[in-house]
Request: fold
Amino acid sequence: MAKRGLGKGIEALIPGAAIGENEEILEVRPDEIEPNPYQPRQIFDDEKMEDLVASMKEHGVIQPLIVRRSGLGYQLVAGERRLRAAIMAGLEKVPVVVRDMSDREAMEISLVENLQREDLGPIEEAEAYQRLAQEFGLTQEQIAKRVGKSRPDISNTLRLLKLEDEVKELINQGKISGSHGRALVGLEREEQIRLANRIVSKGMSVRSVEEIVAGKAKKAERSVTSVRVREAEEILSSVLGSPVVVKQQGDKGTITISFFGSEDLERLVDMIGGFSEQ
Reply:
């Protein structure tokens, strides 16, 4: 599925990210380039990497990497897969464009590049947004503008970080989708893991999972209501000294007070009347 909001190109989302016509392209050794500490992508598809390696053995690196100076060498900003493939292909030199940029700019460019290529999984994407927020103080609205998405998209993706680690791993492995994961957020740990495994074993749709979770929420709400009703019955029975039954239907209900004989009724009337006069 295409990523929404990324049709403008990386240069439209992150000013200066595109390689300019007049920029100098250098040839450097791969071992002169240190990894990008802000690389959001953690999972690399072996089959796709093999295809890229084969392509580079035949054609070399067609699109230059973006780097920034670091110590005596360079630090990668964009082009993680290309750099890895170049090393695997045994290339002696790779083309790079050197840029001066801040840590935040480096992370933004790396994040948007991966989003445009649809290389990031849902959890990786969520973790990248979290880093932009925590390390660079960006709000969800600011992150949305930088990566070309809506604020609700950012918020919904970040919710995935509330999932249990076992469920996150299923998403990373592609066994369940990010949409499945969002439906599971809010469930207790054991329920979350149990339902996630059901999704895998039965191939459940997102809609069916949402219906199950909604049903559990209603059941929990009814359970809370039942507890409150029982507590109310105990308190009223204790105060009045007679059995009390509370029945609730939605926002309405009835209170039934039992009495035993005329004297007991008079006692209740006097007691309740006394409460009203206080």
